[in-house]
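Notes continue from the previous slide.

Worked example: a multi-chain complex. Inputs as given:
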Amino acid sequence: NAGVTQTPKFQVLKTGQSMTLQCAQDMNHEYMSWYRQDPGMGLRLIHYSVGAGITDQGEVPNGYNVSRSTTEDFPLRLLSAAPSQTSVYFCASRQTPGGGTGELFFGEGSRLTVL
Amino acid sequence: AQSVSQHNHHVILSEAASLELGCNYSYGGTVNLFWYVQYPGQHLQLLLKYFSGDPLVKGIKGFEAEFIKSKFSFNLRKPSVQWSDTAEYFCAVNTNAGKSTFGDGTTLTVKP
């Protein structure tokens, strides 16, 4: 069982370039989300989705787009990369759309450097 | 808006010492509480969770946490740490609205 799969694991971009971080889960989870992890700032929610066709903004959505065309996939797009977006990005999924008792299952992370 | 506060950013202990990591949350409604652990170079994984019943919950690897509703706290404890417990620990809150909010994390270094 693969769980949550993120690609790529590492990426270096130049300022202004665009790219997509891929996230796929094979657990039939309704809820999927993207976090960024920065030193001393914990995990901050970028965008989340409670089901196919439904997305919403988290704490730090600026500069990022998402879509959820299928239950399995939740890609994160950087439209015009900036150095402030240098971070480690985690995709996470949960069985239930509502918070409830469900724990999050995390991917292995994508380390992005913007020069 | 909900928030989570972890009191210690970096804790250094010797093996066999006892551990307590503080976590307080801010939210007026029903919450479900979690501790996640991130070992060096790995992704986050669940350590333990509380959603109802006995406020003292036990997790993997000998960790436990106590939910004190009146103090809005969910502190993590372990009686005797090991070198392999070196990791970053995150407290998190789920609300029924669907969002999961994390604290800033506590880095634990255990000296052999």
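Summary box: The radius of gyration of chain A is 13 Å. The CA atoms of residues 20 and 63 of chain A lie 12 Å apart.
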